[in-house]
Amino acid sequence: MGVRCPVPPPPPPPRFRSRGGGVGRGRPQHTADPGAGAAAKGKCALGAPLPCPPAAPSGPPSMREERGGVSPAPAQKEPGPRGSDLPRRPAVSAQGGGAGRPWPPTCIRGPPPVSVPPGAMAASPVLGLAAFLCLSVPRASCLVRFRRPVQVALLEPQGRDCSHIWAGSPGAPSGVYTVQPAGAATPFQVLCDMHPDGGWTVIQSRDWGRGRPLDFERCWQEYKQGFGDLRGDHWLGLQHISDLTSQPGLRAELRVDLLDVDNRTLHAHYNHFHVDGEAQFYRLTLGLYSGNAGDAFRGSGHTDNQEGCGFSTLDRDHDRCSPCTDGAQTFSSCSHDRSGSGWWYSDCGHADLNGPWPEREGAMSGMRWAAGDQQPTLSSSVLRLRTTAPREA
How far is 4 from 113, CA to CA, in rounded Å? Predict the structure, then answer.
């Protein structure tokens, strides 16, 4: 059992000066790449890492998601109207031509919860008194967590990935399996989609129709480790995706399945999907495109092409632009100043399936897949990968 004592509210966000000289309030400024500038237009910029400890969870245990890792068990969520629990984002400020985005979350996190081991209250009077005082305050301001840690590293892997499991058991049902890709340090759990053609590992899933949406406005560490519920909305984790696509002697393919608000289905397929390791900022490789959704990852020009870009989050800027532009507005980071989510951004590109949900029903979704004249308003997305042995030339 862990006890989180109440902490004072965070200080107000610092004031910053926009590019046009105006002063506004917004997120603390991230650290951009020292070499970013005009030369960054020809290649993906690589930024310096900033620490971002994972957030402490909040909310009642029945609705709490696992921060800093993907929860293997389905969360019990209360049904409700779409968007009813969504926070309201203030209007975007554009003072002096700059684009401020006064919207949380920042990557400044509160202290971790206090852990009180069994018998500690009797063994240590000081710790016992501190825990007593914390537990004596009203429940609304003192969070007591009851969490059973999932010992994934102790589980026996059932295969390298979902493709490997399917090859050994073609009749295996879809569900949560434990895998350990070749070269991965420890096993982890994934959702395997065994139909229609089997062996697909789900790496991202979002569906507005599930009720309370999962927040994808996260920092680097959470995107690296993964978050959400494997049987619902979730992001598997960049390190797991890199491990799955970096297995010796195997090639991965990516399938993107989309549903728009008119119940129209779209899909995109890339035949050589690869995500590099953290040292390369989880740089993206795609391969050849096919499908009916359009190749939004590559867009219509060189600056739109998101292939070869590193992954960007609120606290790490690896996009291609410095400054970035959207019409007459200029800003410094696609993730920090525009979407708030993590993705492989160029300038900023036409694909972003981790973008924010609309503030209310009927508003435009922040999930983007725009290719040519096709710019659907999306209500769900699923990203799946599958590994195969490369064909002989």
Answer: 4
Written as six digits, the tokens of 19 are: 């590019």
* Burial (0-12, 13-18, 19+ Cβ within 10 Å), 108: middle
Asked if residue 98 lies in contact with residue 338, where contact means CB atoms within 8 angstroms, the answer is: no
User: What's the Rg (C-alpha) of the chain?
Assistant: 22
The token pair at 38 is 């005009």
CA angle, residues 68, 320, 36, in degrees to nearest 5: 100
Q: Are strands 284-285 and 265-275 parallel, antiparallel or unpaired?
A: antiparallel
Consecutive H or E run containing 164: helix 162-168
Sign of CA dihedral 324, 325, 329, 334: negative
CB of 377 closer than 8 Å to CB of 364: yes
Model-level pTM? 0.65
Instruction: Encode the chain (393 residues) as per-residue pLDDT tens digits.
Output: 444 444 455 555 544 444 444 434 344 444 444 444 333 333 444 444 444 444 444 444 333 344 456 766 544 444 443 333 333 333 333 333 334 444 444 454 444 333 444 454 445 555 455 444 444 433 333 233 233 334 444 579 999 999 999 999 998 999 999 999 999 999 999 999 998 788 999 999 999 888 788 999 999 999 999 999 999 999 999 999 999 999 999 999 999 999 999 999 999 999 999 999 999 999 999 999 999 999 999 987 767 899 999 999 989 988 877 787 777 777 778 887 777 899 999 888 889 999 988 755 555 568 999 998 888 899 999 999 999 987 654
In the chain, % helix, strand, coil (3-state, to 5) comes to 20, 25, 60
Identify the CATH class of 2-75+92-388: alpha beta
- CA distances, 70 to each of 75, 153, 197, 291, 333 (Å): 11, 14, 25, 30, 27
Strand partners, 381: 206, 258
